[in-house]
Amino acid sequence: MANRGATRPNRPNTGNKIRQFKLVLLGEPAFGKSSLVLRFVKGHVHGFQESTMGAAFLAQTVCLDDTTVKVEIWDAAGEEQYHSLTPMYYSGVQAAIVVYDVTDEESFVRAKNRVTELQRQANPNIVIALSGNKADLANKTAVNFQEAQSYADDNSLLFMETSAKTSMNVNEIFMAIAKKLPKNEPQNPGAHSARGRRVDLTEPTQPTRSQCCSN
Fold it and tell me: Which segments carry the region annotation Disordered (predicted)?
């Protein structure tokens, strides 16, 4: 069952082990992918978010017990003209979040296609989460929660309804992925290989905001 609550990661202990993984965000334009990432990394979203061109790169650090987890997030553009480029971001990816809009039934169908593509082309051990975004628009819901949950269960996906606007389940879905990754997952040697062409959505003068904090 999807988590509808809100939790905060714990403060790290001295001498934490360090793990790192690469995550790709997939979904059609205007479903709130970039807003989810900004909410997770910076703690807020912009009133107007321009569509991602190609892909955007961000980084975040979260804490799990005695482990510091560094998350490298690739926000892949959803526009059709960029779709052919998406598979190149699958290289070295250990996790993915596929986003649909709970107010748009067709978006759920497209999300299923994205999941199928990941299962066919990405690492067979990839951790995939399904995010039903815009859950704050409950009065406009077009995708039944139980239908999405059943689909996720049948395909061994993590599933949560989220809201970048209210922050509902935003931290939680990233943390759930981090917890599901193998504890002995080797560091990804190619994680930094594409940094020369990245677009970092955080301000250059600001350090990456850590999610490691007290309750």
Answer: 181-215
Other CB atoms within 10 A of residue 75 CB: 26
Full DSSP string of 69-118: EEEEEEEE--SGGGGGGGGGGGTT--EEEEEEETT-HHHHHHHHHHHHHH
| Contact assessment for residue 170 and residue 38, using Cβ atoms and an 8 Å cutoff | no
CATH of 19-180, one of 3.60.15.10, 3.40.50.300, 3.30.930.10, 3.40.640.10: 3.40.50.300
Contact 57, 90 (CB under 8 A): no
pLDDT tens figures, 129-173:
999 999 999 999 999 999 999 999 999 999 999 999 999 999 999
